[in-house]
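Hi D.,

Good news: the full-assembly prediction came through. Inputs first.
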Amino acid sequence: MTLETELITTIFNGLSFTLEERKLLTRSFEKLHLPKHSLLLKAGEAVYEQYYVAEGCLRTYYIAPDGKEHTVQFAITDWWISDYTAFFNSSNALMHIECIQDATLYKISKNDMEQLYHHMPKLESYFRKKMERAFASFQKRIIANLSQTASERYLNFINTYPNIEQNVKNYHIASYLGITTQSLSRIRKELVQG
Amino acid sequence: MTLETELITTIFNGLSFTLEERKLLTRSFEKLHLPKHSLLLKAGEAVYEQYYVAEGCLRTYYIAPDGKEHTVQFAITDWWISDYTAFFNSSNALMHIECIQDATLYKISKNDMEQLYHHMPKLESYFRKKMERAFASFQKRIIANLSQTASERYLNFINTYPNIEQNVKNYHIASYLGITTQSLSRIRKELVQG
DNA sequence: ATAGTTTCTTACCATAGGTCAATTTTTTTC
DNA sequence: GAAAAAAATTGACCTATGGTAAGAAACTAT
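Then the structure:
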C-alpha cells in the first residue's frame, strides 16, 4: 500500500480530499519502522513530531525521581502517540516512548501539522475531536484512579483494552495501574482462585 | 460591561472579529448567575452546554457506587467547565457540577458551538489549543497520582492553584487528591510541625 | 452574641498495597 | 534444545492511608 493510499483510507478514513490536498498530506507524513525494545523518544529530547501507529505497540512512560517507571499511555494500531505535553508546547520530553512490539509508524511534525490545519480546516476538526476523546478517556482514568481498587482497575483495563493486554508485559500493566508487579501478581491469583 | 464586550475582551481575548462575527458570538452565549451551593448540573441529566466562568468557583465531581465523592475539576475565573465527556458525546452527565462561590457564567450550547466552528475556523483553533492544554494538565495529574505521595500531591496542588485553594473547603481538596479529609488533616499537621 | 450547623482535628485500630528476598516460570539466544 | 536472561510468583514483614468515633473549631443565621 502506498503512503498516500494508507493515509487516505486508514488514518483519515471518513474524510475526503482533493488531489491537491492528497499531495499536501503525502508530503507531510513520513513512514518509519521501529523494532521491539527500541526507544522512539527519550526524556530531555525536543519533541517536534507525533506518530500514527499503523502496526505494532508502544508505550509512553515517565521515570520518577525515585527511579520508578509509570506508564502513561499505550498505543496500538490506529492510535496516535507522542509526549503530547512537550509536543504541544514545543518543549523537551518529560517521558520516554518505547516500542513494545515491532511497529510501523507515520510521523508528522508540528510545523507540517499547523500547515495542514491552515489549508484544511476539516483536519483541525478531526484532531479537535480526537483530542476530545482523549480528554474524555483521561478523565475516566482519573476517576478510576480516585475511586477504584487496584483489582477493579485491573479488570477494567483488561476488559477495555483486550488488544493491548496481549501485547504487553504484566509489569507494563502494573505501572499503568499504579501498582507493583507483586501486587498485580497477587490480584491475578486472587481472580483465578475466586 | 455588555455581554459582547466581555466576550471579545475576556473570553476570546487575543482574537479579532468582524462586526458580523461579533453578532454571531453574542447571539450564541447567554449570561447567568449562580448562587453558592446550587447545582449547575446533576448526574443523569443531558448535557447540551459548556460554561465559561467569568466570576466565582465551581467543581465537577463524581459520586462512586459506594457513595463517595471524587472531585474531578475545579473552575475559577477564565476557566471553562462542563461534564465534558457527556458534552462531547451528547450523552447524559456522569458527574455533578456544584457552585462553590457565587458565580457569573457564560453558557453556550454544543450546537451553537458547532455553528461558530463552521463560520470561524479561528475559534476551532482556539478550542483545539484549549483542549491541548487540558490534555496536558490531565496527563500531569495522572502522573502525579501514579508517582507521588498524598503529601506531595497536596503541596503541588496548593502551589499550582493558590487561587483555587482560597475558594474551597479542605474536603474538596481531599476528594480532588484522592484521600480522606482525615488524611489531609494529618498531612497539614505534619507540614506545620515539620 | 448565642445556638446550631458544618468543617476540621485527633486518636486508635484495620487494611490495601509496598518492600525485600528467594524461587519458579517463561522467553530469548546461541 | 540447553543455557542464559527476563518476567512472574510467593512469603514475611512494613507503611501509608482508610474507617470509626468523638471532640474542637469555625462558620451561619437568628
